[in-house]
Specification:
- The protein has 144 residues and is an all-beta fold.
- It has no helices and twelve strands.
Length: 144
């Protein structure tokens, strides 16, 4: 979990596994003290993704907009980001790797979209410029 408290904000969030085996990312985004985001990230041993073109995510949101974020290296400062809208039901979101845009601290960078062959970090972020409670259930994340 990485929330805006790293910049003085007051947002809170947790990650847990429910009885059905789904990840549950939930909390409250607060704009207090110039805050405004909650995020989670997962780092792992570097994966060769050269044979894959898409990421497929099975999730259930709360009708809010989220970002799915990827990094080819955990040491890279910026992330590649794809925004998606949830609808309150279970959804399968399929994202072309080439549709991820380079972003740093909420700003799109003047760099090419994702074209890397390795992956070392994935994550989710909510930051809709409003105070809000959120809950995102994540069943599966797959390369395709």
């Amino acid at each position: 979990i990485v929330n805006d408290v790293v910049m003085g904000g007051k947002s809170t969030s947790t990650i847990s596994i429910n009885s059905e085996g789904n990840a549950v990312f939930k909390g409250e985004v607060s704009l207090e003290n110039n805050g405004g985001f909650s995020s989670l990230r997962h780092r792992f041993d570097k994966l060769d993704i050269s044979k894959f073109k898409t990421i497929k995510i099975r999730l259930k949101g709360d009708g809010k907009k989220y970002q799915f974020r990827i990094k080819p290296s955990m040491f890279q400062q910026y992330s590649y980001v794809y925004q998606f809208q949830t609808n309150g039901d279970w959804q399968t979101i399929e994202i072309n790797l080439a549709d991820f845009t380079p972003t740093f601290r909420g700003r799109t960078l003047n760099l090419p979209n994702f074209s890397e062959t390795e992956l070392e970090e994935i994550g989710f972020l909510i930051g809709n410029k409003q105070n809000e409670y959120f809950k995102l259930l994540i069943a599966k994340i797959m390369l395709k």
